[in-house]
Design goal:
The protein has 2 domains: about 35-45 and about 110-230, HAD superfamily/HAD-like (Rossmann fold, 3-Layer(aba) Sandwich), CATH 3.40.50.1000; about 45-110. The N and C termini lie far apart (about 50 Å). About 35% of the residues lie in helices and about 10% in strands. The chain contains 8 helices and 6 strands; from the N terminus they run βαααααβαβαβαββ. The protein has helices at about 45-60, 65-70, 75-90, 90-110, 115-125, 140-150, 170-180, 195-205; strands at about 35, 130-135, 155-160, 185-190, 205-210, 220-225. The protein has a 6-stranded parallel beta sheet with strand order 3-2-1-4-5-6. It is globular, with a radius of gyration of 17 Å. It is of the alpha/beta class.
Length: about 240
């Protein structure tokens, strides 16, 4: 499948992650920017993605149970296709094309916005906090979802294939911070999978995770919540751009 062109203004070249921050709990500072994962975080498409994978795996006689699907959570298309190929013997290119077509069709049929997502995005806008979409999905899928969420709610977006490396590497979050002109250590990332949370943490972001799968653990700079409805940008127990030292 041809790689979609990068979004306008995407900085070229690689990026390196700053040292992992330590956060002073209870400071309650406002982030310089809000960097949002898409699938599973803002829209309930992670289950569509896993259902797409389950169908292809089952078709080729591979295990498609919950435990077998867990490693796919948060993976980009090419990484998922490679894993499908390992498990089924299907060529990776063929697996990628089939996954892409099936998942895009599901998204085009309509997606469900996660509870609290639009209110949170609008809250950020009202506070003057810029918002970026940072997704492991391909650009065509990202653009479909942006239409649902309202492109006016986002200052920029970074999709898979538009940085040298995808999640769990820090590149997507570093690119989004650069596009917004702020340091990643001053940003709050919203995630739902271990892969995405690892990417955001490696970039130096503070992270709020609303997990859709197991594997994310609370740590300095990482807060787990049951819903986006629990996120109050004006009263966060996280300090941005600072360290305890």
């Amino acid at each position: 499948m041809p790689t979609p062109p990068p979004s306008p203004g995407l900085p070229p070249g690689g990026a390196t992650a700053p040292a992992s921050p330590r956060v002073r709990p209870g400071t309650g500072r406002t982030p310089a920017a809000l960097l949002c994962d898409m699938d599973g975080t803002l829209v309930d498409t992670e289950r569509d993605w896993l259902a797409t994978l389950a169908e292809l795996l089952a078709e080729h006689g591979a295990d498609a149970g919950a435990a077998a699907l867990a490693p796919f959570a948060g993976l980009p298309l090419d990484g998922a296709a490679a894993l499908v190929a390992q498990r089924t013997g299907l060529a990776a290119a063929s697996a990628q094309d089939r996954l892409d077509a099936a998942f895009t069709a599901r998204v085009r049929a309509g997606v469900t916005v996660q509870p609290g997502a639009l209110a949170l995005l609008d809250s950020a806008r009202g506070m003057g906090v810029p918002v970026a979409l940072v997704t492991a999905s391909e650009r065509p899928v990202a653009d479909l979802v942006l239409t649902t969420l309202g492109p006016h709610r986002f200052t920029c977006s970074v999709a898979h294939g538009e940085t040298p490396r995808g999640k769990p590497h820090p590149d997507p979050y570093l690119a989004a911070a650069r596009l917004l002109g702020v340091p990643a250590t001053a940003c709050l990332a919203l995630e739902d999978t271990p892969t995405g949370a690892a990417s955001a943490r490696a970039a130096g972001c503070r992270v709020i995770a609303v997990p859709t799968v197991d594997g994310i653990e609370e740590a300095p700079g990482t807060l787990l919540l049951p819903s986006l409805q629990e996120v109050d940008l004006g009263a966060l127990p996280l300090a941005f751009g600072e360290d305890d030292g």
